[in-house]
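hey m, so remember when u said the tokens were messed up on ur end? i reran from scratch. heres the input so u can diff it against urs
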Amino acid sequence: MTSRPLPFKPRTLYLEEPLLEFRHGQRLVYPRDGLFLYGPVGETKQLPAIRYGVIGTPDGVQRFRAWAMTMAGFIDIPPPGPRSRAVEPQHVPFPGFAEAFHADWPIDPPCLIDDLDDAEIERTLRIANRHEAIRSTVDLFLSRLVAENNRLESAPQFWFVVIPERVYDLGRPQSTVRRDDRVAGTVTITQRRARQLQTQPTLFGDDEREAEVYQYATHFRRQLKARLLKERIVTQIVRETTLAPGDFRRESGMPVRRVEDPATIAWKLGTGAYYKAGGKPWQLADVRPGVCYVGLVYKRSELMSDKRHACCAAQMFLSDGEGVVFRGALGPWFQTDTKQFHLDHDAARNLIQMVVGEYSRLHDGPPSELFIHAKSAFTDDEWRGFAAGCDDETNLVGVQIADARDDLKLYRPGEYPVIRGTALQIGERHALLWTSGYVPRLDTYMGPETPNPISVRVLRGECPQTTVLADVLGLTKINFNSCLHNDRLPVTIRFANAVGDVLISAPIDSEPKLPFKFYI
């Protein structure tokens, strides 16, 4: 009589907080500490100065100038709140851009477009057809950006796009304009008719040309970034209310929106500016050489008549935080039976070949380890395609990362929730990882409720589970578009939706292969 194997006995383990590396090889866990004390990783000669441009209305640019002046100096942290006797540990004073990033910060923008007509923006936003309204509003910014960027002998490293609050309010898919405030546009064809034209085209194509407006998303930010991809223009979109919140108040005298304190805003926008200008704020310490991470993302366009069709993209991230986005093939990747996205063999092979090719170009050889992170599982045919696109010497590992069940909680004694880095192994290749929770450096938990874990499951390939978990925890700390201690999701998954939304927000003729900074 054969005995049945014992089921896996769950056990907990703790992963140390990943260290970040800053200037002179110094290591700390909190980006603001490292930048305040040591400066960014690498040598100063890599980025001696920031050269940015600014586009906005006259009022918006004036507010930006005032804010830019504060970035050159010291910005103190907010005083303790009425219920606290001490300053919250997550707050770190902003020492000034040059002191934090070891690069000159120009108070006066080197490149400036300050004559956008606020009244024209308002009128365009109120066009009844929302696709026409958003595309026309994006046109106002895009046409000036492209013309100025092409005119300049030395174009800026990136542009600050300062938008009035009205653009934020009406430049999103769910926004509406009151019927009495709407203005007529030029588009007469409906979205339903535009979708029919995909399978029933007209003889001369006039309707098809008008229907093209529906290929552009009704989201100002996403569409602007998508349309600027072919122009290779990097942007940092910022609302006027972020720069000067005191200028915008309700009738009661209260601010129209609550914003973070000035030092926190400076840290976040300053880090994003340094990164988008070509600098590297920090990198993970003690990383294994030759490791490459790929995050898969799938997005479906609302105009597609076949709901199975989706755009697939891959985000390649290196251990130092550098990222490149690859746009894969458009095809019937959505499986109606499993409700998951899967590539066929050829598409999977071609996508990974592009990733490995770019990695090899940067490192003179293929990666020794390649981890594919996805929310879906992997089919046999899909995985064979991924494997065919890799070098034989590359260890290929497929990891499924998803939200765990909401009803699963883990508690510990004391006032604070579970410590970030806690993991519960529930199988030989499956664990729940708390990437949010109590953080000793901050002496608090930044979330509003009991933290939920993420599910990390090694589905394909071979790698120690603790190594996979440690990598995922580290990848929550290289979001260069902010200056937080960590995100909840690794960068391979966290920005998947953002990248995918940009890729389907406007027609893209070529297959862009651009750094991650173009998309965020």
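this time it looks ok to me. The radius of gyration is 24 Å. if urs says something different then somethings off w ur setup not the seq
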